Amino acid sequence: MAQRAGQKRKVVEVPRPEEDSGVDEELDNVVLNGALSDDGESEDEFSTEDGDGDVDGDEDELDDDEIDSDEIPSSEDEDDIRGQMEKLKTNGRPKTPPEKLMGSDTGHDINTFSPETPMKPLEVEGKKRRTFTRIDVDANGEPRYIYDEIEPNYDSDDSDFLVPTNTIGDIPLTYYDEYPHIGYDINGRRIARPAKGEALDSLLDSIDIPEGWTGLTDPNTGKPMQLTGADLEILKKLTRNEAPGEGYDPYPDMVEYFTGKGMEMTMPLSAAPEPKRRFVPSMHEHKRVMKMVKAIKEGRIKPYSKPTEADREREEAEQDFASFDIWANEIPRPDHPMNIPAPKLPPPGYEESYHPPPEYLPDKQEREAWEQQDEEDRERYAKLVKEKFERCLDLYLAPRVRRSKLNIDPESLLPKLPDPNELRPFPSVCATIYKGHEGRIRSLSIESYGKYVATGGDDGTVRVWEIVSGKQLWRIRLSSSEAVNQVSWQPSRETCIIAACCGEQVHFIVPQGEICNPEQDRRSREVLDSGFGYAASNATKTAAGVDKPSSANWLRPSQTLQDKGVLLTITLRSSPKTLAWHRRGDYFSTVSPSTTSTSTAVAVHTLSKHQTQYPFRRLKGLAQTVCFHPSKPLFFVATRQSIRIYDLQQQRLEKQLQPGAQWISAISLHPLGSNLLVSSYDKRLLWHDLDLGATPYKTLRYHSKAIRSVQFHPSLPLFADASDDGTLQVFHGNVMGDSLDNATVVPLKVLRGHKVVKNLGVLDVEWHPREAWCVSAGADGVARLWT
């Protein structure tokens, strides 16, 4: 949608909540190992064979197609049929040497042909041979062949070319045994007999029976006949003297047409035609004739007469100037003689009345006998009081006024949404394409200043691009066999650190080149190296004084990776699929859905201390993703079907949300922290207002396939989601600071451009920190910038 002329861009700044002075240090002296525990049965059944938890949407579906095959007759029946066919072929045939035969056993002596014998060659299907129509003599006296003109609509490769069909009808093909042709086509030309193999070839073909071989010949064309399994089954039944059809009863019950009761049939005594005296004229024709006679008498039907001179003059005058008054002879017309008035409805009977018919009422004697009986002995109708009450109720509640139907416009019931042009700016076109990855791009992240974007994919590489020009500035290969599942920039502006999850390791990278200035490079290296001293001086020990084994290994990588910018590596117990940073940039959390133990699925790491903690002793459900609150010490954990909110300072469960989704894929928290977006693999996008309740405030169904990712804009009232149908949906989501007003959600734009590869479309989406731009990563190995 084009922007209106002279219209200014309207940017709505979302106010940042004021952070509490004591909140910044909510995680400094907190020990989370096993602090957040959930007891009870798990909501999701999982085992060690659950897979890696990364649902790609392209699950294998079992094909239950049945294999159809023709029925093959048994060897005994096959030999029997072949013998009968050979007898049919050889009976009554003249014995001619094979070298003089042309064709098969129905061929004839070659000596019987002459050059003057007109024959039509057998045309092969799919090839059209051009023939001449007549022979002329050229200027030199040589014969010149005159051909038909080539039709421009057809050529030699025309698939609509029809094979000549035999037009002999029901004449048996044996009548043409003494001729070199087997019939005539639609133009009256002879159709030559198709050449067939010798007897030895037939014997060899019969030894190795090809598919569909029957040994029969089509009587119309002389070619081998192809029979189906059902036809072969009918032939087998005929050779065994069995009923060929299904459900045929060879011994039906006798139908008595002449001797049965009521079935006697009167037979005529003679076959002589009926005499004319028995003719009965039609009453319908008699009425039509009488109508014509009446019309002739009244003058409405006149016999034809030649027009006179006066009639011609009158017609010419009417053609020159026609004037007539259609109301000149306007008189009331009487009713038609055949007019029948509408029948009157009969008066209501006893069906519509509460009074019983007379035959049900007692007569005088019965009434006197009933009155003479004692009151207790009298027979009474059991439902008399109930039916009397219902009758009175019907009369009381019967409507006496005709009610008018309300005509309400359905459009008036819908809420009035603002015009999308008034909600600009929002992304609508693709401005830049980032190409270079081999395979799918699983994740992407935009730097805090909005200048660079980092991507990671199945090829095991992390690449940094300039967001406006699309130029690749730096790349590194972390693994040749494992995919990079997640990349994320540290939110601090003083450092330039990229966290990448590849396999069971989390790599911390400081990109080289012009991406980081010297001050950022120095500060980044200090942050990554500060934890080695803290971990050495504050090592945890057991009661026996032995160093306690660490749940994760914080080590320096090899010298080759250090030279390329990888300065720190964490090795976990399972492959992390999600990484979420705290707003301060010192804490981050990883989620490993493929772990065998739920206690190690969610881990909270401290970068400055090189410390890893597992906050859950037992987690209900299989964790999918996590996020931190932007201003409060709240921790959001999403399992397959629920979302739990934990207070990290109080170390207790704060709230539990029930989105109602079958499988949650991603969550995104509003910058104000009061609303939560939840995407699911069952094609639904759920909006939760944390102040209202545990159920969704709105449910959006705009995609035809699974939704992979959803993201709020950091500063503008926008949010977007990415789906496997290859599209991105951009919405306007205005959140009011007042709790009395509900959020406003308006669909703005559908962004199309990514290709669907193996049932996977757009895998991730990320917003620019300031502008109304978003970057999407697709399964087609391309990332796109939408502005």
Automatic annotation (TrEMBL):
GO term, biological process aspect, one: maturation of 5.8S rRNA from tricistronic rRNA transcript (SSU-rRNA, 5.8S rRNA, LSU-rRNA)
Record flagged with keyword NAD: no
UniProt entry keywords in alphabetical sequence: Nucleus, Repeat, Ribosome biogenesis, rRNA processing, WD repeat
Annotated spans, Disordered: 1-121, 332-375
Residues in WD repeats: 434-475, 700-731, 762-787
GO MF term (any one): ribonucleoprotein complex binding
SUPFAM superfamilies: WD40 repeat-like
Residue ranges, compositional bias (Basic and acidic residues): 10-19, 361-370
Bias (Pro residues) ranges: 343-360
Segments of skewed composition (Acidic residues): 38-80
Superkingdom to which the source organism belongs: Eukaryota
Function: Component of the NOP7 complex, which is required for maturation of the 25S and 5.8S ribosomal RNAs and formation of the 60S ribosome.
Protein name: Ribosome biogenesis protein ERB1
Organism, as annotated: Extremus antarcticus
